[in-house]
Amino acid sequence: MKKRIFKLMMLVIAIVFTYNCSVTKETKQEIALPVVASKSDLLKSKLGLTDKELEKVVKNDSVTNQVLLSLKDSLSSKKIRKHLDPFIAGTYNTKQTCVLLKLQTRFKNKSLSLLKNKDSVKLPRFNSMEGIDNYLKMTDSLIAKSFNRKADSIKKDSTKQQKKQ
To answer: Are 100 and 114 in contact (CB under 8 A)?
Structure first.
């Protein structure tokens, strides 16, 4: 009796497990195909890419995802194309393109580009967005300190003038 119940339970578990695996496989395949097609259609329609340009962008997942994030954050297609065209031409690599798109998404009203001349050696270099954030915080604090010093000196000057009168 116990063997029959055990065999019956094993049969039920095997059927349920098989059914669940086949359902998840079907849903993954159904979901994955339309999403990939819609990404390329979205890129082609929003950015006006040719088939060759689209193929080069879609081959690189990092760039594709960053472009889609930029579009999602309502960055204009002109600014995206400005940074995407050098990538397509082979002037920018994946890292440069992704960083520029991230920066352009963050600072939408600014015009950003890479400097590729001898003077750019003196400029700070960043490996991540955290490095840029730390640099901006540091420069903001330095600027705030210099403004506070000027404000303090102006207050001292105005109090000296009041005492003289």
So the answer is: yes
Print the SS3 string covering the chain: CHHHHHHHHHHHHHHHHHHHHHHHHHHHHHHHHHHHHHHHHHHHHHHCCCHHHHHHHHHCHHHHHHHHHHHHCCCCHHHHHHHHHHHHHCCCCHHHHHHHHHHHHHCCCCCCCCCCCHHHHHCCCCCCHHHHHHHHHHHHHHHHHHHHHHHHHHHHHHHHHHHHC
Token pair belonging to 155: 């207050």
Q: How confident is the model over 15-31, as pLDDT tens digits?
A: 665 655 544 444 444 43
Check if the beta carbon of residue 36 is closer than 8 Å to that of residue 18.
Answer: no
pTM check: above 0.70: no
CA dihedral 10, 16, 19, 25 (to 10 degrees): -100
Q: What percent of the chain has pLDDT over 70?
A: 61
Q: CB neighbours (10 Å) of residue 99? A: 20
Q: What angle do CA 105, 75, 121 make, to 5 degrees?
A: 40
pLDDT at 154: 65
